[in-house]
Design brief:
Elements lengths: L27 H7 L8 E2 L5 E2 L5 H16 L15 H16 L13 E5 L6 H10 L2 E6 L2 H13 L7 E5 L17 E6 L7 H15 L15 H4 L4 H13 L6 E8 L5 H10 L4 E9 L2 E9 L3 H11 L3
Parallel strand pairs: 3-4, 3-6, 4-5, 6-7
Antiparallel strand pairs: 1-2, 7-9, 8-9
Helix pairs in contact: 1-2, 3-4, 8-9
Length: 323
């Protein structure tokens, strides 16, 4: 078999945020020194570069465990079979852009420490946003989910990692029709809400998307989607998909207009932006921002909104944020 000529790669992934720890290519020697169990999964690809088989769920799981241990001091991180194994670099990028959003209201200084309180809507079994947000900025988190097994998994991760103890609280959403109701308590305030909403409109669409992704990663055609760590139903799809979920989130956020400084969500499909902007207008938000994110060939964006006036924003910063 003839090998491809070794590719010349840029030293940095320029699309990632400047503060992202994963801008450089994976240093597998360093990762293996931290997590020896990664070694059997590392191989030379057709370009003679060290890599893993990204279509192999076990390899992806071990790589993410190694990244979390090496960069974020997470010694214990396991997921129940079938739950979503998130790409750590992309989730980190999301949080760094949101840190910049907070800094834009604070003379370009990122507010840090546990007094900055974030709500992660759909925290999942992986608890990834609280892990990264706490390590990078010291923020405290409440994570919510409609899936009891996911909440139990996230609680186990928090309990088994001392660095997260007392800084991450997990809450089960009792009514799957609600997003903020039943989660945000009376007189409770959040500086930021985060969400990576279900992308697809049906199980069939989700499975088709998984197949496309796997076939793009693999030279052999795959006809059955891999279930391990591919994502549970509630993580991948909901009625109406991303568009309907986000529009419901915006509508409901108005009822908690003084409970949160910035509401935000990831929007994967640019075609959904028109409906999102219409919902924001209908909700009479005071300010909204769209933040582009680029990961390789994939482009997405964060949409953020607030109901606070500029004066109310200044009061919030002066009373709640300590520089």
């Amino acid at each position: 078999m003839k090998l491809q000529q070794k590719k010349e790669h840029p030293t940095e992934k320029s699309g990632l945020h400047p503060r992202n720890r994963h801008r450089t290519r994976y240093n597998f020697n360093e990762l293996i020194s931290t997590s020896p169990e990664l070694k059997p999964f590392v191989r030379l690809n057709e370009y003679q570069d060290e890599s893993i088989d990204f279509s192999n769920p076990a390899a992806v799981m071990i790589l993410n465990k190694a990244l979390l241990k090496h960069y974020y001091d997470i010694d214990h991180w396991n997921l129940p079979s079938g739950y979503l194994c998130p790409p750590v670099p992309g989730r980190a990028d999301h949080l760094h852009h949101l840190a910049d959003l907070l800094a834009s209201c604070n003379t370009e200084i990122i507010p840090v420490g546990t007094n900055i309180k974030c709500l992660d809507i759909g925290v999942g079994a992986n608890c990834i946003y609280p892990i990264i947000g706490n390590k990078e900025y010291g923020w405290s988190f409440v994570g919510s989910d409609i899936d009891l097994a996911a909440i139990r998994s996230a609680r186990k991760i928090v309990k088994e990692n001392v660095s997260l103890n007392g800084k991450v609280e997990l809450r089960l959403q009792p009514d799957e029709k609600n997003i903020f109701k039943g989660i945000i308590n009376t007189n409770e305030h959040f500086d930021l809400t985060i969400c990576n909403p279900p992308f697809h409109t049906s199980l069939q669409e989700a499975q088709s998307g998984t197949l496309r992704k796997l076939n793009n990663l693999n030279t052999k055609r795959i006809i059955k989607p891999t279930l391990n760590f591919g994502g549970k139903t509630t993580e991948l799809w909901c009625e109406g998909g991303e568009a309907q979920f986000v529009q419901k989130m915006i509508t409901e956020s108005k009822q908690f207009s003084s409970s949160c400084f910035w509401f935000s969500t990831l929007i994967s499909k640019s075609s959904n932006l028109k409906g999102v902007y219409a919902a924001l207008k209908q909700a009479n938000v005071i300010e909204q921002k769209t933040i582009p994110i680029a990961h390789g060939n994939k482009t997405s964006r964060i949409v953020a909104w607030t109901f606070l006036t500029k004066e109310e924003q200044r009061d919030w910063v002066n009373t709640r944020w300590i520089n």
